[in-house]
Amino acid sequence: MKKFLITTPIYYPNGYPHIGHAYSSFIADFYARYKRLFGYDVKFSTGNDENSQKIVQQAESEGKDVMEYLNAMGKKREDVRQHLQISYTDFIRTTQENHKKLVQEMLQKSYNHWDIYEGEYKGYYCIGCEGFKTEKDLIPKDWEMVCPDHLKKPDLITEKNRFFKLSKYENQIKKFYTDHPEFLVPEYRYNEIKSFVNGGLIDFSVSRETNKFWIPLPFDPSQVTYVRYDALFNYVTASKDAWFRNEDTEIVHVLGKDIVKFHGIFWPAMLMSVQEKLPNKEFITGFFTVDGQKMSKSLGNVIDPVKVVDDYDRDAVIFNLLYDVPIGADGDFSVERLWHLYESMLIGWWGNLVNRVTSLCKKYGITSGKFNKQKWETFKEDNESKLLHYFEEWRDNAKIEEQYLRKAEIKSYLDDRYQLVQRANEYITRAEPRAKYKNDDTKNEAIADLQFLLYIVKNIALISAPILINGFKKIQDIFGNEEFGKIDSSKNGNEHQFKLVFDQEDFTVNLNPAIIYKKKEE
Ligand code: ME8
């Protein structure tokens, strides 16, 4: 079985996750579910980045013991991700023993390859970024030079550090980029990274002497790893077997534009140094603002994903985030927009279609869905949806991969799916099954149209299975078809079921019509 590993960044647990954190997790979740349905053995890792100075500060400011604080946050975040139905298989906390051990192993390997050396670091360190800064990284504010992201003056430090020889890998990295033209998506981010590398790479610090809480270097226990080094290796901790031992594993990282240099440049070099396999792909997301402003505690505009999922539906939130913004671009989140999309697209188009078709079928005692070649030709006519052309051969995963997934074109996947939904709505309006059913001459035609529409609804629902997961579950209940009811995108091993149901051109139903998305009371 082909193996697939998808990851989210591991988030700093110095606060509660917001809608931006949910965004990257939702994207990874879509991929994990999709790949499971198409027969991959999926590992999906996420977690908390705990070896960070700002966590120590946060715990201290709350008067808590650091480990106690981390345990509470770890539990809270895992609960949030479960609440959002993120189908991860591994939740990594970087204070866990196997991670520490692995990081030490990796450091030792790089050290043995002469890639880590001692030096003195004199310069700025921004705790917000957990990163070293040069003068040219800073911007002026109130007569001081500050970090552009955190608007705080970084600490000026002088200390003994160990450095990683990034410069040694410059040519190898360039070659890797040439050999893997689609490694980083979207392309404009890849171009930025390439031109950064063309500007010349300088070695970076991987350890500090200050904090005794972090992971000691095996070859110099007076030093502890710098968080950017240890955090990246969480991906290996999560998947040691799949990653290390299986050359065929497809590895995909999802991350935000804020950490693209670490993932696009440092990470490949670190892996080259320890002679491990490199990821196949990195999807770089943009950032969300809220009502046009950066999310911040002081502005009080931080969106809690749990609350919006409870207020609307998980399907509405994921749909809003992925439908409105192509992967890579920045976006804006607003509750008005969420409400609008929920009402118009989920309830108006999709929910209504399912309800119209299944209620009429139930009313007229129809107990089967049927494909019909002639009706299919009418349905297809003038339809622009690319998905339509793949609809007939949906099980040909390669085409969908090629068209949508390879370049993270999730927005167009949803757009094209919506064209099918619209088409089906138009079809039922034009077919006038209610009127035709009343007339003996046209009654059979009405029945055939509705049977055909049941087939269409079934397959559009299957296309939505990895994304509109709550609606999908409800449709499974409505259909009352045993095989259909068994499909579950949160678990490996469903592919036979999925194919079987997709291919069913004549199937029985035991309809139990219900509303899939409830109107929200204002
Ligand atoms: O950087 N819009 O953790 P972090 C969209 N621990 N996505 C957002 C976002 C927003 N407004 N805000 C955050 C770290 N994100 C490190 C990562 S990985 C080895 C170490 C998402 O808690 C986005 O994916 O600051 C970003 O890369 C990630 O959260 C950063 O989370």
Q: Could you explain how this protein is built, in words?
A:
- With 522 residues, the chain is α/β, with parallel strands linked by helices.
- The chain folds into two domains: 3-285, HUPs (Rossmann fold); 335-508, Isoleucyl-tRNA Synthetase, Domain 1 (Orthogonal Bundle), CATH 1.10.730.10.
- Helices cover 50% and strands 17% of the residues.
- The chain contains 22 helices and 19 strands.
- The strands form six sheets. The chain has a six-stranded parallel sheet, sandwiched between helices. It has a four-stranded antiparallel sheet with strand order 5-4-8-10. Strands 11-13-12 form a three-stranded antiparallel sheet.
- Strand 6 and strand 7 (144-146) form a beta hairpin.
- Helix 12 packs across helix 13.
- The longest helix has 29 residues, at 335-363.
- It is elongated.
- The mean pLDDT is 91.
- It binds ligand ME8.
- The site of ligand ME8 has 20 residues, from strand 1, helix 1, helix 7 and strand 14.
